[in-house]
Amino acid sequence: MKKFKFKSQLSFLFAGLLSVVIVSCEREFSDEIALATYPDIPEVFTDVPVSLTDQFFVSFDPAGGANVNGFGTDTKEAYLGTTSIRIDVPASNDPQGFYIGGIFVDRGNGRNLTNYDALTFWAKGSVTAEIGLFGFGTDFEGDAHAVGLNNVMLSTDWRKYTIPIPDASKLVQEKGVFAFAAGTANTSGLGYTFWMDEIRFVNSGIVAQPSTAISWEGGNNQTAYTGGVIKTAGIAQTVTLGDGSVVKTAIAPGYLDFKTSDPFVAQVNEAGEITVVGTSGTATITASFKGVDVDGSLIINSLGRFTLPEAPVPTHAAADVISIFSDAYPDAVTSNFTPGYGGSTTITTTLSNGVDKFLRYKSNNYTGIEFQATPIDASSKTHMHVDIYVEEAGTSSVEFQIRDIGENGEINTDVNTGNPTEDDKDYRFTANGLTVGEWKSFEIPLAEDLANQKNNLGSIVVVRGPDFILDNIYFY
User: Fold this and answer.
1) Same domain, 102 and 125
2) Residues 284, 164 share a domain
3) pLDDT number for residue 24
4) Above 60 in pLDDT, residue 89?
5) How many domains does the chain have?
6) Residue 185 has pLDDT above 70, yes or no
7) Which residues pair with 289 in a beta bridge?
8) Tell me, what's the pLDDT at 67?
9) What is the pTM of this model?
10) I need a labelling partner for 81 at 20 to 30 A (CA). Which of 50, 95, 106, 435 fits?
11) Strand-pair partners of 212
């Protein structure tokens, strides 16, 4: 999925900055020109959408499995008034998409929400289903101030939900005023319906300083080569509301202020992305929220410039290739190389020697390469190619499990028990005979269970082989 991941997902990720540089100007302007202001409109949906675009629901990417057909209004169900928003969540095997989700967009240039401390809404379900995401701040233009309330269990009665605003002073021009995403992870693939009503920004009486913690992809103490980039794995904030209840949300890096102890070793931007710039040394990356330090500083040690022989040059014609990761071909799909599987010890980084890019795996027990934008149709392909390099002794083999996501729309991440259902197929191949200091190429057949069901590939699971480097991953 492009914008939302049962991520783990997420987990969900946010980033994006827009900078404007004025080079020169011949006209002179008064210092007293007023800054642009935006309307203060707290309501999002009452009986009607309030100041939203004509097509106020903007779906997540259908190419990533989002179903665009289940959104509407209902005059037979409402918490107040006469109308609610009705969401029909598709079954996991619906050919038009296995989940539903998207955002509500402001009609104008954005809203000034600095006078509010929370978004509230009422919701109920036809069953006690778990909704993957409710939130706001996602606008598809950077999502710098996105906030998400994840894995919300609905009742079959109307209940009120509150999503705190981390720092309202940031929301002077907010376009994304609501977001949701829902699938069938806890309904055994069965579709259901839920309703939402009275969506608005409010002053809820939040009390106490929030508790904020940040985690980093790869852990809190890392080594990296010059040019390496490390991103946040997630920022969690816990808030106590005025009624004593506690709410935990995922918030965007844009709410935090980041700092590096040594900008000549590592630099960090407003999106929390760290770039190693020094050829040696150590830097500590910290963050604060409204002047208060958050938990989860990162110590980064520079290893200097990365040196590695170039991988073998692929010889297959570009027209015959579906590329996952290669400088030789344009990648056919956006992939998540750090899916964060539970129990995984793997640290995956993308490195460059100035000519070629590589995927470096350290402390690997198992991880995955998940195809985010769309499942891959490899019906016309017979093999997967991969090049493997071992830097030091300890890795003589790596196992690859090529996975079909099956009709249930779920990616199986169990590396031990095989196929959990008849729908999910995979093929398992062990690349043996790896030696230190050498690139080795492998041609992996799309065989056995996968041979007749390779039109819906969703991931490559990488198992064992603790330390190695990959390049030129593609189907042909």
Assistant:
1) yes
2) no
3) 27
4) yes
5) 3
6) yes
7) 292
8) 92
9) 0.73
10) 106
11) 237
Note whether 217 and 97 are same-domain residues: no
Structure tokens at 279: 């050829």
Question: What is the reported pLDDT for 150?
Answer: 95
The predicted structure's pLDDT at residue 421 = 45
Rounded mean pLDDT, 85-97: 92
* Residue whose token pair is 């539970």: 342
- Distance, CA of 290 to CA of 237 (rounded, Å): 13
* Helix/strand/coil (H/E/C) assignment for every residue in the chain: CCCCCCEEEECCCCCCCCCCCCCCCCCCCCCCCCCCCCCCCCEEECCCECCEEEEEEEECCHHHCECCCCEEEECCCCCCCCCEEEEEECCCCCCCCCEEEEEEEECCCCECCCCCCEEEEEEEECCCCEEEEEEECCCCCCCCCCEEEEEEECCCCCEEEEEECCCHHHCCCECEEEEEEECCCCCCCCCEEEEEEEEEEECCCCEEEEEEEEEECCCCEEEECCCCEECEEEEEEEEECCCCCEEEEEECHHHCEEEECCCCCEEECCCCCEEECCCCCEEEEEEEECCEECECCEEEEECCCCCCCCCCCCCCCHHHCEEEECCCCCECCCEECCCCCCCCCCEEEEEECCCCEEEEEECCCEEEEEECCCCECCCCCCEEEEEEEECCCCCCCEEEEEEECCCCCCCCCCCCCCCCCCCCCEEEEEECCCCECCEEEEEEECCHHHCCCCCCEEEEEEECCCCEEEEEEEEC
Which of 37-46, 56-65, 232-241 has the weakest average pLDDT? 56-65
Let me know if residue 255 belongs to a domain: yes
Question: Could you tell me which residues come within 8 angstroms of residue 123 by beta carbon, excluding any fewer than 6 positions away?
Answer: 131, 134, 152, 154, 158, 159, 161, 194, 195, 196, 197
| Tens-place pLDDT, residues 428-441 | 899 999 999 999 99
Question: Is it the case that residue 424 has pLDDT exceeding 80?
Answer: no
The closest of 316, 368, 308, 357 to 474, measured between CA atoms, is 316
Q: Cα(418)–Cα(216) distance, rounded to whole angstroms?
A: 31
Could you tell me if 184 and 89 are in contact, meaning their C-beta atoms sit under 8 angstroms apart? yes
Q: What is the CATH number of the domain that holds 347?
A: 2.60.120.430
